Structures are given as C-alpha cells and as structure tokens.
Amino acid sequence: MPRKLLPFILYALLAACFAISAHTSSVSEDPPLRNRHSDALGRDARAVYSSLTAHEWGTFTSVAGKDGSAVEWSPLTGSTDLPGFVEHFRNAGFKLGLRGTGRMETPVLYLYDSREENVSVKVSFSKGIITEWYPRASRVEPAANIFDGTLYQRHTDGSIAWDAVMVSPSLRAEFPRENLDNHYYAARLTASTPLRVRTTAGEQQEKFLFYRGVSTFAVPAAATVTSLGKLMLENRGEEEIPNTILFERRGQRVGYQIGGALQKDTLLDPPELTGSMNDLSKELEGMLVTQGLYQDEAHAMVETWRSSWFEEGSRLLYIVPRTFVDGVLPLTIHPAPAQTVRVFVGRLEIVTPTTEKAVERALNAADSATLKTFGRFLEPILTTMIQRESSLGRAQRFQRALNFYYSSEIAQNRH
Fold it and tell me: Which distant-in-sequence residues (6+ apart) come within 8 Å of 316 by Cβ?
C-alpha cells in the first residue's frame, strides 16, 4: 500500500468511530425522543419509554341469583353517594331503569411521575356504559340516548377518554370539596402525583381519574347455598381467582372466612359472627398489597368501601383475575407507563335463608328501617324470594313489596 494513502485511511477510520460514538450517545441519552421519532415514522412498534407509573383499583358488584350466576338488577337506585361536582351521563336521575348484571364501582386511576408529563387515557367497557366520572372527560361514548334495552341489544361498547392530562409533581393542587363526610375523598389519601386536566369547562385538578359504569358482562364467580346451609363457590372463568372472603353481617355482629384461591369450586361454612371489621380491613389491605397496590392505595380502597362492603347481609369478596379485568375494561395510556397495576375486588351479594327471613320479618312488621339497611339490594333480594317461593300467597305479598319499592324509587327520582 502506498505510504501516502495511510494518513487518509486513518482519518477515515477515526471519523467513522466518532460518528458511531455520537450516534450511540444520542440514542442512550434520550430513548423517549428516539422512540417518539421512530413511532412518528412508523418504523418502530416498540412502546414509548416513560418514567410514568399507573396504579388502579375498583370494584365489580353483582348479585347471585337462584343458580348462583349474576342476575339482572337495577344497581343505580337509591340516593347518590358522590359529590355534586362529579359528572353524570345525561343526568343523575336517568339511571333508574338502567339494568345490568354488573356495577363497575369507583375505579380510580393513580398516575406517578418524577417529572411533569402530558398523558392521554382511554378506558373501554365491554357490554356497558360509563355513567359517572371526574374530571370532565374529552369523550364519553356512546353519545346516543341510552335506555334499559340498549345494554341487552347489540351496541358499541361504552368508553371514556381524557386527552389532556398533565401529571404534575410540583402542583400545589386545590381539589374540589363539598360534603366532607363523603367517602369519595378517601381515595385522595395517597402519594400519587397530582393531575391537571384541561377540559371545556377550564382546568380541573384531582389526585386520580375516576369513573363508574354498568354492564351486562358475566362475572367469573358464582355462589349458591346448599341444602345443608354451606356455600358452594364456583370459578366460572378461565383463570384462578387469587383470593376469596365470605363475609356476613347481622346487626352489629360480623363474621368472615378467608377461602383462599379458587381454581374451580369449593364449599365454605357460614362464618361465625365473632369477627372484627378492623381485623378484616387489615386482611383485605394485605391481599390488595400482595396484588401490587401500594400500602396507602390499599388503605384508601378499603376506607372508601368500608361502609358498603361491610353492610348488612352476606357477600363474597374476591380478587378479580387481572386478565378478566383487562378483557372487560381495556385500558390505554399514552405514553405507555413503565408499570401498570390493576387490582379489582369482585363483590357478589348472596341471598341466604337468613337474609330472606330478615326481609320477611321486616315486611310483616312494616319495619322500614330494617328494609332500608339492604338498600339497593332489596330489589334483587325480593326478586329471588319470589322465584324461590312455592306458596302463591307469600309470593304475591313479596311482589306487592317489590312494586312498592319500584314506586318509591320512581317518586324519589322524579323529585
């Protein structure tokens, strides 16, 4: 090789090394920029990198019928338990006739980030609609008028989207407050990053994104009372139910039994009413943390639902399998979080012989105070009692009570 060509070859090699080094350095310093650029060009299918973390909890509430499956009922009857600033589909009173098999209650989505970042969030709801939410959403679909029959006919799945959510660690937020005893505020007692949401009504601030809905989906758990008084639990889904709790309350006495994971089916004895709600709260919080929630999130969830989960009656509380949650309630966040945790508790109300006797005694004594303790579940309880009753006279008496319940709810809604 001619001696004169050596310097040129060395210079060329050095230049190539510097170019490779510069390119590698620029990629490693800003992977989000690289991925955003690649996504924009459509050449890279990888998710956008982000320091964002998303944690969500919520409840699916249903009522077990005669065969143990979730029955159709009106889950939105009774007075609202939400602050006045929460938004409603159409209005707060339209929902009386909206019937379904499952009530999706208070999912709250927490976002965490070490830096200020704009994100967009969309949630779809299989066979259902979104009925309440806060802050104001960019879109809630379907936009057409909804009535009872819509949920049982072919229709577009409900969905809600927030297009302009600013996750802002430095925000000194002033969140809306009214009726300070409302259990809605317990969900704010976490270390989640405050959010600023740009809406058509101006900027709104909150510690989470909140929404609720009603659907006709089939829940994965079923429960029937055997002739010997035991409870037969069935897992009708494809994935193991991670944990189960059988709970019962009669007046001031409570009891619970932890059933553990449910692969297929199991028999449980009724719990002895010698338990403590504080002990049960700790057990529940431990289960929720095991599923991936932070301790303060688990505590916030239990405090939010303490008065509801532990009210009069019998119910199965269970951890809903994650694949079931994702199938019924698909969640999309952009940019994609580094971690997404979703923990939902299934609540299956069980109409036991003890519950039926308590309701019948209250009806015979015109004891409205006792009937009121069963709240919105009085309708499916009476319906189940009618279906099980062999005496025509007793069934007619239960039907009159059910008709009176409907009339009272209609009058209250009109008011």
Answer: 64, 221, 223, 231, 233, 244, 245, 246, 247, 346, 347, 348, 350
DSSP one-letter code for 86? S
288 token code pair = 């929720």
Tens-place pLDDT, residues 118-155:
999 999 999 998 989 999 999 999 865 555 555 766 66
Q: How far is CA 356 from CA 90, 272, 330, 387, in A?
A: 36, 19, 37, 12
Burial class (CB in 10 A: 0-12, 13-18, 19+), 252: exposed
- Give helix 353-364 / helix 392-414 axis angle, nearest 10°: 80
The pLDDT value given to residue 178: 85
Q: What is the mean pLDDT of residues 215-240?
A: 94
| Domain edges within the chain | 53-219+319-348, 353-414
Q: Is 239:320 a contact under the CB 8 Å cutoff?
A: no
pTM attached to this predicted model: 0.84
C-alpha 48: how far from chain center: 26
| Strand, coil or helix: 245 | strand
Instruction: Check residue 33 and give its pLDDT.
Output: 32
Measured CA to CA, the distance from residue 315 to residue 310 in angstroms comes to 9
Q: In what order do the strands lie in the sheet with 221-225?
A: 221-225, 231-235, 265-268
137 three-state secondary structure: coil
- DSSP per-residue letters across 153-197: SS-PPEEEEEEEEEE-TT--------STT-GGGGGG-S-PPPEEE
Write out the two tokens for 155. 């229709």
Report phi then psi at 78, rounded to 5: 90, 170
Q: Which residues of 174-183 are buried (b: 16+ CB within 10 A; e: fewer)?
A: eeeeeeeeee
- CA distance linking residue 137 with residue 134, whole number of Å: 7
pLDDT at 336 over 60: yes
| pLDDT tens profile 359-390 | 999 999 999 999 988 988 999 999 999 998 99
Residues with Cβ within 8 Å of residue 265, at least 6 apart in sequence: 232, 233, 234, 235
State the greatest distance between any 2 C-alpha atoms of the chain, in Å, as a whole number. 115
Q: Which residues contact 191 (CB under 8 A, 6 or more apart)?
A: 112, 294, 296
Do residues 78 and 14 lie in contact, with contact meaning Cβ atoms separated by under 8 Å? Answer: no
